[in-house]
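Reopening this one. Same input as before:
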Amino acid sequence: MAEDQALGAFLDDLASERSTPGGGGAAAISGAMGAALVSMVCNLTIGKPKYAESEAELKEVLAKSEGLRAELTKAIGDDVQAFDAVMGAYGLPKGETEEAKAERTAKIQAALKVATDVPLECARLCAEVVKLSAVTAEKGNVNVVSDAGVAVQSAYAGLLSAALNVRVNAKSIKDRDFAEGRLQELESLLSDAGATTTATYAAVRAKLD
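Same output, byte for byte:
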């Protein structure tokens, strides 16, 4: 699976003529990098007497960021599977009867729904990393506050990237209630995370200036 590859091998695959891994995997990697940086800031803060007041909270943040890192890493493979399922459904014989055509269409639509929900889940996970980044920027070791800034930008980049995959699949779904519901959730995630990212990055800059 892609998540088990060495970084160089993954990037070679990403650069190749193959369709997967692609943008969805790259979005998950961005989010996972953000989560890893959140963990790093926590690890470099916990145990330091200067930050004793924040230790309990940052231990909770660390547990969450490590969970998110694992989920986002797994999302790389989930994206590949979802894309392959869509391509497989489109590759089915069109059939001669109306029943056969309807069955093919149903399989395509089912695959598109999964291919919408997979990047949406990635977007949700990235949004959670954005929130945790804000905590580490405020309460983490000031010597690595720049890493909290990188974390929030990486996570938000992953969210923005995942959003593109949600949209590209949602537009082909005939069940518009399903599609519009996902798109509305996506807009909420983008709005909230965008505001948090802007504020967090500004806070980091203020500590560095």
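So the earlier flakiness isn't reproducible anymore. For the record, The helical segments are 7-15, 23-43, 55-90, 98-139, 145-170, 176-208.
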